[in-house]
Amino acid sequence: MAGRLNPLEVARQVTPGKYPDGDGLYLVVAGAKSRNWSYRYWVRGKERWHGLGSLNDVSLKEARIKRDAARQKVRAGVDIVQAKRSAREEAKAAAAVADLPTFKQCAEKYIEENWGKWSKKHRAQWPSSLQRYAYPTIGHLLIGDIRPSHIFQLLQPIWVEKAETANRVRGRIETVIAKNVDIDDSEFRNPAELTRQLREKLPKRPKRTQRHHPALPYAEAAQFMAELMQAAGTAAAALQFLILTIARTNEVLGARWSEIDAPRAIWRVPGTRMKMGEDHSVPLSGPAVAVLNDMRNGSQSDFIFPASDGGPFSDMAMLAVLKRMNRRHVTVHGFRAKFATWVEECTEYPDGVREAALAHKYKDETTAAYQRGEKLEKRRALMSDWANHLFSNQANVTARDAA
């Protein structure tokens, strides 16, 4: 069909309206400054208007060429308006995906956010383990693109040979992923979760024999304490305090003077340093107080047992003391096991008092609710009896105020 419009008419037309040229081509005028070309067509009985550009940029001749190209697509079954809309939405979605962080970026952010709360051990292990075992496989992937098969791929080589490392790496990946998903997404399933499918695919681990922390027989405790009293240095004093309070290594090495309630002879350990994350009060026996008095003399540090730089000792310091005493078969944590055995076999204290002293958490929630009290006075008596046992064969026991 011959065009109805001519270039001169088009150039002068400023009256609002739609002016047909033929075969679906229209000049759409909204005002002197808004004049555009548009191609009109139908798809399944629905009218469509496909823009071909502004009159300022597209001449009548060029508009007809664009109209013909559009007609060819429509005849081929293409809904060009919908195609343009879909392309625009895809571009927008692609841009949004490009802005999403990768697993490595998410992990680095999580590490940064928690760095101040972690021990030196965690600060060393988190970045190094993910760098070595996770990033090569999933570091570049978006959280939503990680699949259980990826987790299998990275765990499979170390699942048997480095079982503990594999467990920690999987747990760390699961934590990072969980931290970066929508809390309201009820259909989400963490790909790093140790599901039955993943467990069955991974190599079978050999059955483990239960290992216990090596500990001195409690009957030898008094002889050991006599030897330890002769050992010099802050680490040796920290080990004495640990044994007398039955605390964990990080609890003792991180102990600060501000945590000591001297009038009541109580050490209040904040939950940030406790395994269960809850504040814990430790009644101090006479010998424990004596250790603190020895350490207080001339101390300029906030830490009770400071290293040479004024900060806390390394967690290997007390183990080094045991090695110097030729007690290489004994671990620091083993003293807690020795204490538990002594309470059970040599005293009449209830299990709840022993467990409270060890800061253990009851697995049974009902029992935990019933036993929630700290039992400070009962534990004070227990810790006094424990100190008496530790110093039972020393002539100078009164010097340490064991009673």
From TrEMBL:
Single GO BP term: DNA recombination
Domain Core-binding (CB): 101-181
PROSITE patterns documented for this protein: CB (PS51900), TYR_RECOMBINASE (PS51898)
Tyr recombinase domain ranges (all copies): 211-383
Pfam families membership: Arm-DNA-bind_3, Phage_int_M, Phage_integrase
Domain of life from the UniProt record: Bacteria
Keyword RNA-binding appears in the UniProt entry: no
Transmembrane region(s): none
GO MF term (any one): DNA binding
InterPro entries: CB, DNA_brk_join_enz, Integrase-like_cat_sf, Integrase_catalytic, Integrase_DNA-bd_sf, Integrase_DNA_bind_dom, Integrase_recombinase_N, Phage_int_M
Keyword Cytoplasm annotated: no
Keywords in alphabetical order: DNA integration, DNA recombination, DNA-binding
Family classification: Belongs to the 'phage' integrase family.
Name this protein carries in UniProt: Tyrosine-type recombinase/integrase
Native organism: Bradyrhizobium archetypum
